[in-house]
Amino acid sequence: MIKVGITGGIGSGKSTVCKVFEVLNIPIYYADDRAKWLMQHDKKLIEGVKQLLGPSSYLKDGNLDRKYIASIIFNDKDKLAKMNALVHPAVWLDGEKWNEAHKDSPYTLKEAALLFESGGYQLMDKMICVYTPKEVRIKRVIERDQSNKEEVLARMDKQMLDEEKMKLSDFIIHNYGTHSLIDQVIEIHRQLIQ
User: Fold this and answer.
1) In this structure, what is the dihedral angle of CA atoms 93, 49, 47, 111, given to the nearest 10 degrees?
2) Which of 154, 130, 131 is nearest to 142 (CA)?
3) Confidence (pTM)
4) Which alpha helices (H) appear in 5-59, and where do they start and end?
């Protein structure tokens, strides 16, 4: 089985691209969603987050206070690095178990925003980068998250430049309306199953 990573900057449309792969019956591990789940259910990870960022990291109902966490880690490189050092190993272990459960598939996709930044791409056999111009991404994220341009740019500044991601990728999907998304996914799928 081939392990394929799929990444792209915030607002690039990774999830939309993954939905097309899902139609082709390809299993997809959504690393960012899984990280959030683990941060609310993995006792060791919960304790680590509380030690790093304080008890205010969690709401009274046990859910993450994502706004509080983002306000700290996206403004403090040291805390961001420490948070990643807690979360990434837990997600990697969880992803390995998930991959084992899907070993009969021709390939699996691991969708994550920070596959290159975390070094996780080195554990993949192939990499797909979803590319969308920065201004389109900013507009999408502002609409999706009801945030402002400064907040979006602060998050983008923590990610590797698109040009660097594309150089390290085996496949590039252009997701901004000038190329058929379905045709691009089908072509990559065809190459991966051969």
Assistant:
1) -20
2) 154
3) 0.86
4) 14-23, 31-41, 43-53
Cβ atoms of 39 and 49 closer than 8 Å? yes
What is the arithmetic mean of pLDDT over 161-179? 95
Instruction: State the average pLDDT over residues 78-91.
Output: 92
Q: What are the structural domains, with CATH classification, of the chain?
A: 1-27+107-194 (3.40.50.300), 32-101 (3.40.50.300)
**How far is residue 45 from each of residues 61, 82, 90, measured CA to CA in Å?**
17, 12, 8
169, 131 contact by CB (below 8 A): no
Distance CA 58, CA 56 (A): 5
Would you say how long the chain is, in residues? 194
